[in-house]
Amino acid sequence: MGLSNRITGLTGGTSGGWDLFFKARAMKAAGEDVTELTIGEHDVRTDPAILDEMHRAARAGHTGYADIPGIPALRDTIAARVQAATGVPTARENVVITPGGQAGLFATHMALCDPGERALYIDPFYPTYPGTIRGASAVPVPVTARPEAGFQPAQADIAKAASKGAASLLINTPNNPTGVIYTRDTLDGIAAQAQEQDFWVISDEVYDTQIWNGEHLSIRALPGMAARTLVVGSMSKSHAMTGSRVGWVVGPEEAVAHLINLSTHTTYGVPGFIQEAALFALNQGPGFEADIAAPFRRRRDIALSVLEGQNVVRAVPPDGAMYMMLDIRATGLSGQDFASRLLDERRIAVMPGESFGTAAAGHIRVAMTIEDSQFAAAFAELVRFAAALT
């Protein structure tokens, strides 16, 4: 008797890239003063008005089983939001509510991939991507987005990876970990291959409200793509509701109907009082979302000003999301070694680029998730540390 290969092989025999994060947390638990620039967790908690609405809804009795697809008003609001942003007709029937974006990623791969089928994803990647694909009993296949190409995935590389067969391709723009926003040319190339080689696209768009330069375009809006795209969204980043676990999947009505069946057999929906709070939050409008995003824009500008006048640490153009990817190859260290020494010698925790795949080797990811003055001091110390290594 034993455990399933699916569960024992979920991480592919690795830690999933979290070793340094766990080490930093252990140091803090032991009483050491560690500055954490590791995970995408807002330094400002969920707005009290949202929590008040959650409390009101719970006290009003919305604590029983909620509609499994999501409460109608929330689905309608998300549909209208998506249609306004993309121009693609979107109705309630195109939306299913999930317990956060991560559950949406798992659900979409379950819906699109049969056991043993190849599921592509872009490297660098959010560390749960390969395990999510394995959890759906599919085979994760990375497609490298090279630093010399600005981490924009190339159409030719996608075509080559899909030539052996592919059920799906998972993309993420604005991107975690790089902060890159995929260009129209990049998205056109992905769309062309999806249609030519007949695979689905899963588009993780949870950072779509954090745009610092350029604009975000959903691949679902491109010609011919609405019928073969599932978009994953979330309240976590846009409204600082990470712990509330509210996300969604938007896609063709038939696919969404099957995703609703999956919810019935797995999560059985999201608590109604949390959905009511999410609906309230969305109805606060784009100004509210801009306020949530504003600290990350400020810290991006702080970091860029610190980087001026030196060439040891170079920023990958930080066009979106709450992270900055830094090229530290001039130090002669790998991202892993640099991050480990930075933690041990300066008590600053960042994520090694290698945590996000092979493409980001020689890089580190900095989460811009602490108060401005603390961030400025920590970032300046990071740059001084890099300079001392050279």
From TrEMBL:
Q: Which reactions appear under catalytic activity for this entry? A: L-aspartate + 2-oxoglutarate = oxaloacetate + L-glutamate
Q: What is its EC number?
A: 2.6.1.-
Against Pfam families, the record matches this protein to: Aminotran_1_2
SUPFAM superfamilies on file: PLP-dependent transferases
What is the uppermost EC class here?
transferase
Fetch the InterPro entries from UniProt.
Aminotransferase_I/II_large, AspAT/PAT-like, NHTrfase_class1_PyrdxlP-BS, PyrdxlP-dep_Trfase, PyrdxlP-dep_Trfase_major, PyrdxlP-dep_Trfase_small
Q: Name one GO biological process term.
A: amino acid metabolic process
Q: Name one GO molecular function term.
A: L-aspartate:2-oxoglutarate aminotransferase activity
Tell me the keywords, alphabetical order.
Answer: Aminotransferase, Pyridoxal phosphate, Transferase
This protein's cofactor list reads:
pyridoxal 5'-phosphate
Q: Which residues form the Aminotransferase class I/classII large domain?
A: 33-375
PANTHER family found in the cross-reference section: ASPARTATE AMINOTRANSFERASE
Concerning its family, UniProt says: Belongs to the class-I pyridoxal-phosphate-dependent aminotransferase family.
* Name assigned to this protein: Aminotransferase
The beginning of the lineage is: Bacteria, Pseudomonadati, Pseudomonadota, Alphaproteobacteria, Rhodobacterales
